[in-house]
Amino acid sequence: MLSSYRTHLLTPPAPSEDLIEKRLQFETPKLQAWSKIVLYLPKTPKTCTTSLLQTNKQLYAETLATLTRLAANSPDYALDLVILDECLLLPTWTNVPVITTHIDTVHVSFRMSGAYENRQKHRKLGSYQGFMGGDGAGPAMGWQLYAVLERFIKTGAHGETGCPDTHMHVTAKCIRIDVQTPLGFGVERFGEPPSDVYGRRKMEGGIHVLEPDYLADFVEAHVIKLLAGMDYEWFTYGQILFEHVDLVVVCKDGVEHRRCDVAERLRDLGHIPGRRFSAEQLRRYKEDTWQVRKERGLKVLSE
After folding, report:
1. How far apart (Å, rounded) are the C-alpha atoms in residues 22 and 7?
2. How far is CA 172 from CA 91, 130, 176, 236, in A?
3. At a CB cut-off of 8 Å and minimum separation 6, what does 263 contact?
4. Nearest in space to 224 (alpha carbons), one of 268, 283, 289, 277
């Protein structure tokens, strides 16, 4: 099933104005991410069985039985995530066999379209976007990616909910991220993104395309940061993984770079630096989270 859309995803994307024309930023539910500049299609994706449910009674019954079986067996989802001009995220659900809160594997394809030109091109959507840092919060892209994760955990493939407090607690056995190298570019065209708040590129020789290896390393580093418990703030952001996901795998062109076992990371958390979260609070959090993971069918380890 997944191979059927891979060829399509590797096709060069449309011009940027066509990609963003019908997209918008969702307002609900409320997210913690510092930057939420992510553009979605306005409608909830139809499952691949929707048309069958709209035919005759026999097909309706057969399709409904199949949907029940799929939901019970935790289906796979697929998300195409375009990074436009090194600044905007454009997610599109490409495989949603059934709407459910328990998913086996979420296949996320990272594709790059366009190249960074200047700070003003997409500024109307917000100034804190792309790989430029801001006020000690690091590159905005890390938070934009977190916003995609957070919305998925809270709404699944639904997107906009109309309610700021919606939280469906969607779980995934595995989130498999595959950073794909753009076709039609020589290696000399690839480079790092703008490296400071002014968007000045250190590379010479004109416009370059975001380096796939850089992006894979960037995503990997942010996943590890969420799971490392390096301070209280990062620990709170990482809780969305501790409580809803078993495994995060980062690949480049289908080749695995890093595999993060979330349960192992939770078990190995010894303390949270600083004074805002004591050893006893961590012990209680882990105890409660192991119980939550068990109830949600996720991996549980002994301390």
Report:
1. 24
2. 18, 27, 10, 19
3. 246, 293, 298, 299, 300, 301
4. 268
- Provide the 10 A C-beta neighbour count for residue 224: 16
Residue 242 CB partners (closer than 8 Å, separation 6+): 227, 262, 265, 266, 289
Query: ∠ at Cα 269 (263, 273), nearest 5°?
Result: 145
Global pTM reads 0.84
Helix axes 232-242, 140-155, angle to 10 degrees: 40
Chain center to CA of 26: 15
pLDDT tens-digit series, residues 20-38: 888 999 999 999 999 999 9
3-state class (DSSP) for residue 244: coil
> Which amino acid belongs to residue 25?
Q
Q: Which residues are paired to 191 by β-bridges?
A: 210
Query: Alpha-carbon distance 119 to 142, whole Å?
Result: 18
The residue whose two tokens read 């996720």 is 298
What SS3 state is found at 93?
strand
Helices of type H across 111-200: 140-155
d(CA 153, CA 168): 7
Task: Please work out, in degrees rounded to the nearest 5, the angle formed at the alpha carbon of residue 251 by the alpha carbons of 47 and 235.
Answer: 85
CB 34 within 8 A of CB 47: no
In the 8-state DSSP scheme, what is residue 247? E
pLDDT, tens digit, for every residue of 151-208? 999 999 988 888 999 999 999 999 999 999 998 777 878 888 864 444 455 545 556 7
Helix (H, G, I), strand (E, B) or coil at 150: helix
Please report how many Cα atoms fall inside a 13 Å half-sphere around the Cα of residue 21, on the Cβ side: 6
